[in-house]
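Quick question, first post here. What does this chain look like in 3D?
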Amino acid sequence: MTHTMTVEAVAGYLALTQDEFEARSAAGEFDAFVAEGVWTVADAESAYQHLYGRGVECDPVAAAKLITEVRRVAEGVRAYGDMPEPDNVKAGRGGVAYRVSFDLDVIAARMESMLRGTVLLDMMSAAALSAKVALWGEKDTSQFEVERRISLSFDVVDSIVPPVDVDDARRVAEMQSVCAKLDEIREALLRPAVLGDEDEDPVAAMSTAAGRGGAYLLGVQRDVVAAHIEALEARRLAVADGGSQA
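> Answer (accepted):
Ran it through. Tokens below.
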């Protein structure tokens, strides 16, 4: 999933004011990261690392939980988001239930892929260092010469079948819960958590790249759901007014 970003969004991603971003863009500082002035999240992340450096530390257990939460939210949207109208189905356009749940599943898959890449890089670096230490100490290095498997645990996420008579009031309540949960996940992705000793440096749930990118993309979906809530509320009030006039 490729999502283009506005100038305002890119500036916010890079922790710059819009004026600062535009001035530095005009000076050509970001030319190497963006093609024809169209920014994607990957472009913004490359520019961020150019400005502030790379960060790859993460907490795999916490990250796996957040990824699972994104998938749970997707199922809530799939069940209680509005389904497409018949004309939209014929035209190949899905409703919020389809579009947002699909995008959330793609975001979760993207986050999982980045998590697995980060864990693999960390394990390979640690193994290479340990092998050198063992070699220097004239110790057995055979354990580093075989394939190893890394287990990452993700909870099973159940699909949800809503009541057949679910009304707009219930849909609004469920979608409000979705927005709140997406806000929690986004905050957790960007908030460092201390592991073990309190004197240790804070470690984010996901690597900084995955955390920022995931938080931004989840924010886009949250805004879609928030707009959908307004539409549901308007439809619910219109139905109520029609009933009262009758």
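The radius of gyration is 23 Å.
The first strand starts at residue 4 and ends at 5.
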